[in-house]
Amino acid sequence: MGKRKMAAFVAVPAAVALLATGCGGGGSTAGADNSDGAVSIYGTEPQHPLTPGNTNEQGGIRVIDELYAGLVGFDPDNAKPYNLMAESITSSDAKVYDIKIKKGWKFHDGTEVKSHNFVDAWNYAALATNAQINADFFSQIQGFDEVHPDSKDAKPTAQTMSGLKVVGDYEFQVTLKAPFSVFPVKVGYEGFDPLPDVFFKDPKKFEQNPIGNGPMKFVSYTPNQDIKLTRFDGYQGQDAVHFKDLDIKTYSDLNTAYSDLQGGQLDFLDLMPPAALVGDKYKADLQGRALNTTLIDIDTIAVPYYVPGYNNPDLRKAISLSIDRDGIIKQVLNNAYTTANSYFASSLDGNVPNSCEFCKYDPEAAKAAFTKSGFTGKLTIASNSDGGHKEALTAVCNSITKVLGVSCDFVPQTSLGQFRSMITSHQATGMVRSDWSADYPSIENFLNPLYKTGASSNDSTYSNPAVDKLLEQADSTADKDGAIKLYQQAEALIAKDLPSIPLWSEKGTGGYSSKLSAAKLSWKRQPDLSSFRLAS
Amino acid sequence: MGRYVLRRLLQLIPVFFGTTFIIYALVWAIPVDPFAGKCGQRPCPPEYVAKMRADFNLDDNLLVQYIKYLGKLFTGNFGQTFSGVDVSTLIANAYPITIRLAIIALIIEAVIGIIAGVLTGLRKNGFLDNLVLISTLFLISLPVFVTGFVLKLLFNVSVPNSAPFFDLIVPGFVLGSLSMAYVARLTRTSIAENRRADFVRTAIAKGLPGKRVVGVHLLRNSVIPVVTFLGTDLGALMGGAIVTEGVFNIHGIGGLVFINIQQQQGVVVTGVVTLLVLVYLVMSLVVDLLYAVLDPRIRYE
């Protein structure tokens, strides 16, 4: 019998004990709208142990967001960053950052959060031998190459990054390899959350019973069933929760979750099943308890340069101009998306509507460009077919065929794994679906990982030295507005080359049960638990 | 009898090795790297992939992997999932639920099915007979997810995560409904056939009361094909019910296998399926032994 079972046995009496003592007040958050009720939300099984350095998917992030609190949080309404644990993040040159953290914050085990908790957690996540999934997020910090050599076989020559220095109990200094103006936003990503001292003594044991500094603390985890959290009354952040117990229920079927939401057995669902979206059925079903938000993401189709015949600007223009985005959104996607007319999510600072000149439907111009391209042969769009992408991409193909008269097929791949390994090994034989959700809300996150030469998710193998240069300049510009201007210039060049063709961005749709009187859905498609209020 | 049982139990050993190897090989043969899609739109860091491949022996050849797996299995270690959860914990959480659900479904299909079968078999072509025929036809032609969602919404069923017995009655009914229809029809045919058998006529001629003729003489002999069906059905029910479990969000063994095939978690799939194969074999042994109890003419030596 595993240790996890043991942890559950230990955790349950602990929770009971807390309930028995009533656990009143203590934190600054105890207010009039605090209630001791319980809330259940939809969840999926975490794919990794519940530590910040090793969690990168929706199911795990949902838990991490509540267990831990990072330096920076994001406003649920407009995704603007605010200082959460950070007292201040200052820099004169965007290269050396001086970070002061708030005093008196506690981990759930009672130890105080100090600057070394951040530094140690970051060093742990970056060290190659720890094999953490989020290691690359630290690659801009000085000394990263020593702890995480590029080559797989090379051993790290240092255990800690030279760019991280603890200055005092509540202050530390981060030196980057090169200036990077978006760093204060980037540290809002979950991978930058702190870890308590107890983690480093025995990480394996810690994973069974994670201890964070966030608004809720860990109670129990039953694999494939649920994760239970309860309010941490000592929490001092502005995103504290106003209910007591949280049950994150694992569902394998979205339709079941939806009917549970209607029946009141589930209180929050962050994703509507396609059947509920038809004709806005969910809005009628949920009677004013439906949620709409603006997710920070973009769906594109990448047109790989290595596919014969695809390295042709006129062909790219013709394809983009021949896609009737609005029509497809209305007819196939149940209006759950908005047309993308730039390379950024529309709600981001620095996005200019219609900055992508060719991201519109113009059959005449498309035909002219296609004739000019001289392309012969057929087009294909590949995607994994298990995530419901088939209908929309088939519609895209039909639209292209209708306008250009060229044959276009949707090529299904059985799984995301198969599909992604085809792309990363440059084996695609046609266009590929390429969707992106922001790690942190900044236009930088929509350019560097996607369009820089050799970037991790550069699906079309795009390489333009002018774009690379502009991105580097933008990264190193300390002035926020100046940096945005440079990112916009880079986008303008990309929009001319069309390495990938923006299609649409998803609107978030969610809903809550009548047990709640208020709830919000965040830009990451996560519940914003601090906005939950129990109906009285 | 004892020797027969022993022989059957010994047969389990080669079957155990055969099935575990085949299942392991099948999961292994899926041509995709299980870590290719694990980090979404980004490739996973190579160090992470290398560590996971090493931890799960994925770089060894199939035979070495399988032997390493077996070695662990014999020390009682079912292995761990990619996220570090013990497979034994997963099974321990899911299996009691599946067993409860299977037993409820079996009781419902056996009791309702046999009663309906006996009543209709005794009075062929009556009103009740036609009613049962039409309703069973209705049940057989409906897909399980339709019955499932209709009953779920009708009774507003929500199964808590611990899935206590009482809450599983409606899902159990859904799960057993199809087999219930088959049981009713099997029993009806069998009863109708045996009613004209010599031993029944003799029993009636001896002046035995009708209850005893039907309940002991007729039913006991007619129920053999039904028991065969119920036995194999229980074996199948123990293997989980992906659709019913999905509709009611019951965290049983069916969903567990399904999810882990998708995620290519070979260790979980092999562990669970091996267990299922053993359960199925034991079930069919029990059914075979039941024959001897029901029909004195059958003897095992």
UniProtKB/TrEMBL annotation, chain A:
<dbReference type="InterPro" id="IPR000914">
    <property type="entry name" value="SBP_5_dom"/>
</dbReference>
<feature type="signal peptide">
    <location>
        <begin position="1"/>
        <end position="25"/>
    </location>
</feature>
<protein>
    <submittedName>
        <fullName>Oligopeptide transport system substrate-binding protein</fullName>
    </submittedName>
</protein>
<dbReference type="InterPro" id="IPR039424">
    <property type="entry name" value="SBP_5"/>
</dbReference>
<feature type="domain" description="Solute-binding protein family 5">
    <location>
        <begin position="80"/>
        <end position="457"/>
    </location>
</feature>
<keyword id="KW-0732">Signal</keyword>
<dbReference type="Pfam" id="PF00496">
    <property type="entry name" value="SBP_bac_5"/>
</dbReference>
<dbReference type="InterPro" id="IPR030678">
    <property type="entry name" value="Peptide/Ni-bd"/>
</dbReference>
From TrEMBL, chain B:
<feature type="transmembrane region" description="Helical">
    <location>
        <begin position="163"/>
        <end position="184"/>
    </location>
</feature>
<feature type="transmembrane region" description="Helical">
    <location>
        <begin position="267"/>
        <end position="294"/>
    </location>
</feature>
<dbReference type="Pfam" id="PF00528">
    <property type="entry name" value="BPD_transp_1"/>
</dbReference>
<protein>
    <submittedName>
        <fullName>Oligopeptide transport system permease protein</fullName>
    </submittedName>
</protein>
<feature type="transmembrane region" description="Helical">
    <location>
        <begin position="97"/>
        <end position="119"/>
    </location>
</feature>
<keyword id="KW-1133">Transmembrane helix</keyword>
<keyword id="KW-0812">Transmembrane</keyword>
<feature type="domain" description="ABC transmembrane type-1">
    <location>
        <begin position="95"/>
        <end position="291"/>
    </location>
</feature>
<dbReference type="InterPro" id="IPR000515">
    <property type="entry name" value="MetI-like"/>
</dbReference>
<dbReference type="InterPro" id="IPR045621">
    <property type="entry name" value="BPD_transp_1_N"/>
</dbReference>
<dbReference type="Pfam" id="PF19300">
    <property type="entry name" value="BPD_transp_1_N"/>
</dbReference>
<feature type="transmembrane region" description="Helical">
    <location>
        <begin position="12"/>
        <end position="30"/>
    </location>
</feature>
<keyword id="KW-1003">Cell membrane</keyword>
<comment type="similarity">
    <text>Belongs to the binding-protein-dependent transport system permease family.</text>
</comment>
<feature type="transmembrane region" description="Helical">
    <location>
        <begin position="131"/>
        <end position="151"/>
    </location>
</feature>
<keyword id="KW-0472">Membrane</keyword>
<keyword id="KW-0813">Transport</keyword>
<dbReference type="InterPro" id="IPR035906">
    <property type="entry name" value="MetI-like_sf"/>
</dbReference>
